[in-house]
Design goal:
Length: 192
Amino acid sequence: MKKISLISLFLIFIACDTPKEELSKSFNGHLTNEQIGLIIQINKEYDEFLFKKFPEAENNLDKAYILLSETIAEQGAYDGFILPTEKLKSIKNELIETGFYKELYLDWEEGYSHNYDGQYLSCLKELGKRDDDLKGFYEAIIESGSRYNVAMAINSYIYLSNKNEIDSMKKLLLTFDLVLWQIEIKTNANNR
Protein backbone atom coordinates (compact mmCIF):
# COMPACT_ATOMS: atom_id res chain seq x y z
CA MET A 1 0.00 0.00 0.00
CA LYS A 2 2.84 2.35 0.88
CA LYS A 3 4.44 1.59 -2.50
CA ILE A 4 1.22 2.47 -4.37
CA SER A 5 0.95 5.79 -2.52
CA LEU A 6 4.54 6.69 -3.36
CA ILE A 7 4.03 5.76 -7.02
CA SER A 8 0.83 7.83 -7.17
CA LEU A 9 2.57 10.80 -5.59
CA PHE A 10 5.48 10.43 -8.02
CA LEU A 11 3.12 10.31 -11.02
CA ILE A 12 1.28 13.41 -9.84
CA PHE A 13 4.61 15.20 -9.42
CA ILE A 14 5.74 14.20 -12.92
CA ALA A 15 2.44 15.30 -14.47
CA CYS A 16 2.80 18.86 -13.12
CA ASP A 17 4.06 21.21 -15.80
CA THR A 18 6.47 24.01 -15.11
CA PRO A 19 5.15 27.50 -15.89
CA LYS A 20 7.26 27.55 -19.07
CA GLU A 21 5.86 24.19 -20.21
CA GLU A 22 2.32 25.31 -19.41
CA LEU A 23 2.88 28.51 -21.41
CA SER A 24 4.29 26.56 -24.36
CA LYS A 25 1.39 24.10 -24.36
CA SER A 26 -1.24 26.80 -23.94
CA PHE A 27 0.05 29.07 -26.71
CA ASN A 28 1.21 26.32 -29.08
CA GLY A 29 -0.47 26.91 -32.43
CA HIS A 30 -1.13 30.55 -31.56
CA LEU A 31 2.40 31.86 -31.18
CA THR A 32 5.71 30.65 -32.56
CA ASN A 33 8.24 28.97 -30.27
CA GLU A 34 10.39 32.07 -30.69
CA GLN A 35 7.55 34.32 -29.49
CA ILE A 36 6.81 32.05 -26.51
CA GLY A 37 10.52 32.07 -25.70
CA LEU A 38 10.46 35.86 -25.78
CA ILE A 39 7.73 35.95 -23.11
CA ILE A 40 9.91 33.70 -20.96
CA GLN A 41 13.05 35.78 -21.62
CA ILE A 42 11.26 39.03 -20.76
CA ASN A 43 10.11 37.50 -17.47
CA LYS A 44 13.61 36.33 -16.63
CA GLU A 45 14.99 39.81 -17.29
CA TYR A 46 12.33 41.49 -15.15
CA ASP A 47 12.80 38.95 -12.34
CA GLU A 48 16.55 39.68 -12.35
CA PHE A 49 15.79 43.42 -12.35
CA LEU A 50 13.60 42.97 -9.26
CA PHE A 51 16.19 40.83 -7.49
CA LYS A 52 18.65 43.73 -7.89
CA LYS A 53 16.04 46.21 -6.61
CA PHE A 54 15.18 43.97 -3.67
CA PRO A 55 18.30 42.07 -2.57
CA GLU A 56 16.43 41.15 0.62
CA ALA A 57 14.21 38.90 -1.52
CA GLU A 58 17.24 36.62 -1.88
CA ASN A 59 16.24 35.53 -5.41
CA ASN A 60 12.83 34.37 -4.17
CA LEU A 61 10.08 35.23 -6.69
CA ASP A 62 7.37 35.33 -4.05
CA LYS A 63 9.29 37.79 -1.88
CA ALA A 64 10.37 39.97 -4.82
CA TYR A 65 6.86 40.42 -6.20
CA ILE A 66 5.34 40.96 -2.76
CA LEU A 67 7.97 43.63 -2.09
CA LEU A 68 7.24 45.19 -5.49
CA SER A 69 3.51 45.29 -4.76
CA GLU A 70 3.93 46.64 -1.24
CA THR A 71 6.41 49.31 -2.32
CA ILE A 72 4.19 50.52 -5.17
CA ALA A 73 1.19 50.62 -2.82
CA GLU A 74 3.17 52.62 -0.24
CA GLN A 75 4.75 55.03 -2.74
CA GLY A 76 1.71 55.35 -4.96
CA ALA A 77 4.08 55.34 -7.94
CA TYR A 78 5.67 52.84 -10.27
CA ASP A 79 8.52 54.92 -11.65
CA GLY A 80 11.35 53.17 -9.84
CA PHE A 81 10.37 49.77 -11.21
CA ILE A 82 10.52 50.38 -14.94
CA LEU A 83 13.27 48.68 -16.89
CA PRO A 84 15.93 51.02 -18.35
CA THR A 85 14.80 52.60 -21.63
CA GLU A 86 17.62 50.98 -23.63
CA LYS A 87 16.53 47.54 -22.39
CA LEU A 88 12.92 48.32 -23.34
CA LYS A 89 14.03 49.42 -26.82
CA SER A 90 15.97 46.17 -27.21
CA ILE A 91 12.92 44.11 -26.18
CA LYS A 92 10.74 46.11 -28.55
CA ASN A 93 13.13 45.38 -31.42
CA GLU A 94 12.97 41.66 -30.62
CA LEU A 95 9.17 41.83 -30.62
CA ILE A 96 9.29 43.47 -34.05
CA GLU A 97 11.88 41.03 -35.45
CA THR A 98 9.85 37.98 -34.36
CA GLY A 99 6.59 39.36 -35.79
CA PHE A 100 5.15 39.35 -32.29
CA TYR A 101 4.68 43.13 -32.32
CA LYS A 102 2.04 42.83 -35.07
CA GLU A 103 0.15 40.31 -32.91
CA LEU A 104 0.04 42.88 -30.13
CA TYR A 105 -0.47 46.22 -31.95
CA LEU A 106 -2.15 47.63 -35.03
CA ASP A 107 -0.73 50.57 -36.97
CA TRP A 108 -2.76 53.73 -37.37
CA GLU A 109 -1.77 57.01 -38.92
CA GLU A 110 -2.20 58.77 -35.58
CA GLY A 111 -0.40 56.11 -33.56
CA TYR A 112 -1.20 52.56 -32.57
CA SER A 113 -3.92 50.51 -30.95
CA HIS A 114 -3.96 47.11 -29.38
CA ASN A 115 -4.58 44.20 -31.71
CA TYR A 116 -7.60 42.68 -30.02
CA ASP A 117 -7.85 40.10 -32.82
CA GLY A 118 -4.19 39.06 -32.60
CA GLN A 119 -3.21 35.54 -31.63
CA TYR A 120 -1.98 36.54 -28.15
CA LEU A 121 -5.25 38.03 -26.94
CA SER A 122 -7.30 35.44 -28.83
CA CYS A 123 -5.48 32.66 -27.01
CA LEU A 124 -5.78 34.47 -23.68
CA LYS A 125 -9.53 34.74 -24.28
CA GLU A 126 -9.71 30.97 -24.97
CA LEU A 127 -7.70 30.21 -21.83
CA GLY A 128 -10.12 32.40 -19.86
CA LYS A 129 -12.93 29.99 -20.69
CA ARG A 130 -11.17 27.40 -18.49
CA ASP A 131 -9.63 29.64 -15.84
CA ASP A 132 -11.36 32.48 -14.02
CA ASP A 133 -8.10 34.26 -13.21
CA LEU A 134 -7.08 34.37 -16.87
CA LYS A 135 -10.60 35.43 -17.82
CA GLY A 136 -10.32 38.34 -15.39
CA PHE A 137 -6.90 39.25 -16.75
CA TYR A 138 -8.19 39.20 -20.36
CA GLU A 139 -11.25 41.27 -19.44
CA ALA A 140 -9.12 43.82 -17.59
CA ILE A 141 -7.00 44.34 -20.72
CA ILE A 142 -10.07 44.68 -22.94
CA GLU A 143 -12.02 46.95 -20.58
CA SER A 144 -9.13 49.25 -19.74
CA GLY A 145 -7.93 49.61 -23.31
CA SER A 146 -4.46 49.31 -21.87
CA ARG A 147 -2.01 46.47 -21.49
CA TYR A 148 -1.46 47.15 -17.86
CA ASN A 149 -3.14 48.64 -14.88
CA VAL A 150 -0.86 49.30 -11.91
CA ALA A 151 -3.65 48.82 -9.34
CA MET A 152 -4.55 45.51 -10.97
CA ALA A 153 -0.91 44.45 -10.87
CA ILE A 154 -0.45 45.17 -7.19
CA ASN A 155 -3.47 43.09 -6.33
CA SER A 156 -2.67 40.37 -8.89
CA TYR A 157 0.85 39.67 -7.68
CA ILE A 158 -0.33 39.52 -4.05
CA TYR A 159 -3.27 37.32 -5.09
CA LEU A 160 -0.98 34.91 -6.97
CA SER A 161 1.42 34.82 -4.04
CA ASN A 162 -1.40 34.03 -1.61
CA LYS A 163 -2.48 31.17 -3.88
CA ASN A 164 1.14 29.93 -4.15
CA GLU A 165 0.99 30.63 -7.88
CA ILE A 166 3.67 33.31 -8.23
CA ASP A 167 5.72 30.73 -10.12
CA SER A 168 3.01 30.11 -12.71
CA MET A 169 1.99 30.83 -16.27
CA LYS A 170 -0.31 33.54 -14.88
CA LYS A 171 2.68 35.41 -13.47
CA LEU A 172 4.54 35.00 -16.79
CA LEU A 173 1.62 36.64 -18.63
CA LEU A 174 1.13 39.39 -16.05
CA THR A 175 4.81 40.33 -16.12
CA PHE A 176 4.92 40.17 -19.92
CA ASP A 177 2.08 42.70 -20.04
CA LEU A 178 3.83 44.82 -17.41
CA VAL A 179 6.88 45.10 -19.68
CA LEU A 180 4.68 45.82 -22.73
CA TRP A 181 3.13 48.69 -20.77
CA GLN A 182 6.62 49.96 -19.94
CA ILE A 183 7.51 49.84 -23.64
CA GLU A 184 4.35 51.79 -24.47
CA ILE A 185 5.11 54.62 -22.06
CA LYS A 186 8.91 54.77 -22.42
CA THR A 187 9.56 54.08 -26.11
CA ASN A 188 6.39 55.35 -27.74
CA ALA A 189 4.75 52.14 -28.97
CA ASN A 190 3.84 53.64 -32.36
CA ASN A 191 7.40 54.74 -33.07
CA ARG A 192 8.85 51.76 -34.98
